[in-house]
Write a structure and sequence with these properties.
The complex is a heterodimer of chains A (153) and B (423). Chain A has 153 residues and is α/β, with parallel strands linked by helices. Chain A has one domain: Phosphohistidine domain (Glucose Oxidase, domain 1, 3-Layer(bba) Sandwich). Chain A has 3 helices and 8 strands. Chain A starts with a strand and ends in a 16-residue tail after the last strand. Chain B folds into 3 domains: 173 residues, Aconitase, domain 3 (2-Layer Sandwich); 106 residues; 122 residues, 2-Layer Sandwich (Aconitase, domain 3). A 5-stranded parallel β-sheet of chain B has the order 12-11-10-13-14, with helices on both faces. In chain B, strand 10, helix 12 and strand 11 form a beta-alpha-beta unit. Chain B is globular. The chains are: A alpha/beta (153), B alpha/beta (423).
């Protein structure tokens, strides 16, 4: 039983992956390991989770203006989220994605959702992002994602 | 997303490559960002502060070298934030040679663009300081907050990689904090019954900043009820805290900051969306959040995020005079090379060197991998070091006053005086 949410395609693109969901804003600098894709902000509820290849559902970025650089590095290293769904149009994440496109031809699809829609995505749920900002929710999630880290390189 | 763009002839010429390929690339990124900002046009800026200098890896280096190779030159005076390496001092620490070489390549790329090589995260404490109302483009979260709040210059919260695009084109999105109507406060933080003795102490301000970021992660807070006028260094500490625990790019302090002569002016005549009362209890909780240490083990004291000022060196010199740190504890100050040289010529470093302290310039342990793996227990008086060290350096951290940092370094274990925080 598939459900569809309509969002704003901040940086258009298609992607699919398991959702990694948090209500807590994140700083990629100091919060995201650009070599592994692990959330390393030890004060963050997602601390220890691997976001590489996942659809990261996060309200917005906070803190350092270096977050953009970290996200760009993670694209180059192949450990960026498959897509990002935010609650507000977030300029830091959008810029990282646009520069990743200009430099490497690899933008990260980013969709912004209204608050009520943002809360509909559950952790672990398989979601499919369309280029027009539609998000298809493919199955039910589970609040504690259990996927391990991707195979180490 | 709005799609109607109102670009000037100059903007179009940049996009067409008339001003060279680097300006074309910078303008292309800026124009793609306009809808993201909800803006339809760009405005002129007359200065910039570039945080893209921080070396984060191959991608940030490649971005800088690509722009430099395309012949990029900044169009407005542009100061540089910290780099990824202490150019002349990195060999004294554990910086891998490969990191130093690449971070240095990135430094050279940004210098080649005609920038001002200040290499500091406290650019507002240099001679290249903007003025009230000036339109600028700044990266570096604490600098953004200081420029907007304390000086009243106008910048959005620009991310790395976009600040340099603004500097190269001399343009920035006409949106957000560039525009008067978006600079009104929307959240009132009322300080109640905070002892004056605490307000007069430097240790109050990093905690206040941390709390502001927690309570107003993406709002414009108006702080009311301060009985003392903070020094610029104290504002600097507020900015660093508020821009670490939150995304605060502008705060007003009633009767203190330039756009807040009155509460009404700070809110531009509107009513606050919300009022939060801040008590000593709230502050004590915020203070506790800044420390992750268990026990009193101490390996290193680190000061200078943001970079130490000459005044702060003067305070430090008085506190360390005639004392010596414990041999098992390292003591580090980070600052700009200009401030180090001024402090040195003013004789402010003699006592500090005799104490056993060391100095790193151009960068800091959060932006260069300089610390040996044996350093696991840090102490600092900075909310920004306190906030980021556990994640970035994989260390425990204790937050304390400057005096406590020095006393602990002498004793070889963490000692903190809590008197100020008790009612």
């Amino acid at each position: 039983m598939e459900r569809i949410i309509h969002g704003i395609p901040v940086v258009p693109g298609a992607a699919e992956g398991a959702a990694l969901v948090t209500d807590e804003p994140i700083s990629f600098w100091g919060g995201y390991d650009q070599r592994t894709g692990e959330i390393i902000d030890r004060r963050h509820p997602l601390s220890g989770q691997i976001a590489a290849g996942r659809v990261l559902v996060v309200p917005f970025t906070r803190g350092s203006s270096t977050s953009t650089a970290i996200l760009l590095e993670s694209v180059r290293a192949g450990v960026a989220p498959a897509a990002i769904v935010s609650r507000e149009v977030d300029t830091f994440m959008a810029l990282a994605s646009i520069v990743a496109d200009e430099m490497y031809g690899k933008p990260i699809p980013i969709v912004a959702l209204a608050e009520a829609d943002f809360e509909r995505i559950e952790g672990g749920q398989q979601v499919c992002i369309e280029a027009d900002g539609r998000i298809r929710l493919l199955n039910r999630g589970h609040p504690e994602p259990v996927e391990g880290p991707p195979e180490s390189q | 997303m709005p799609s109607l763009l109102l670009l000037t002839d100059y903007d179009h010429a940049c996009l067409a490559g008339t001003h060279g390929p680097a300006t074309q690339m910078a303008m292309s990124i800026l124009v793609r960002m306009l809808p993201v900002y909800g803006a339809s046009s760009l405005l002129d800026i007359s200065a910039a502060h570039i945080d893209s200098t921080v070396y984060m890896g191959e991608a940030t280096m490649e971005f800088a070298e690509k722009l430099a190779a395309l012949g990029a030159k900044v169009r407005v005076p542009s100061t540089l934030n910290v780099s990824g390496v202490d150019e002349h001092g990195w060999k004294e620490w554990d910086v891998p040679a490969d990191h130093a070489a690449k971070a240095h390549r990135q430094m050279m790329a940004y210098q080649a663009m005609g920038t001002i090589p200040t290499w500091t995260c406290a650019p507002y404490q240099t001679e290249h300081r903007p003025v009230l109302g000036q339109q600028i483009a700044s990266g570096e979260s604490n600098a953004i907050c200081f420029f907007n709040s304390v000086i009243g210059a106008r910048t959005e919260r620009y991310p790395d990689l976009l600040d340099i695009c603004c500097a190269i084109t001399g343009r920035a999105p006409a949106t957000g904090l560039h525009l008067t109507e978006n600079r009104a406060g929307n959240l009132l933080l009322r300080l109640e019954r905070i002892p004056r003795r605490l307000q007069e102490d430097d240790a109050f301000y990093p905690v206040l900043g941390h709390l502001i970021g927690r309570l107003a992660p993406n709002k414009i807070p108006v702080i009311e009820g301060l009985e003392v006028t903070p020094t610029e260094d104290q504002h600097k500490a507020v900015c660093a805290g508020a821009a670490s625990s939150g995304a605060v790019a502008l705060y007003h302090m009633v009767g203190i900051t330039p756009e807040a002569p009155t509460r009404n002016a700070a809110f531009q005549g509107r009513a606050p969306e919300q009022t939060i009362v801040v008590t000593l209890d709230t502050l004590a909780t915020a203070r506790a959040e800044l420390s992750t240490c268990q026990g009193d083990r101490l390996d290193m004291v680190v000061l200078g995020s943001p970079h130490l000022s000459v005044d702060e060196f003067r305070k430090l010199a008085l506190i360390v005079a005639g004392r010596q740190k414990h041999p098992d504890v390292a003591f580090l100050v980070t600052c700009s090379r200009a401030v180090r040289d001024i402090a040195d010529s003013a004789g402010l470093l003699d006592a500090y060197r005799a104490f056993g302290g060391r100095i790193t310039v151009d960068t800091c342990p959060l932006t260069t991998p300089m610390l040996p793996g044996s350093i696991k227990h840090l102490m600092t008086n900075s909310a920004k070091y306190a906030y980021y060290s556990p994640g970035l350096l994989n260390t425990q951290i204790a937050y304390g006053r400057l005096e406590d940092c020095v006393t602990s370094a002498v004793a070889g274990r963490i000692l903190r005086d809590d008197t100020l925080w008790n009612a």
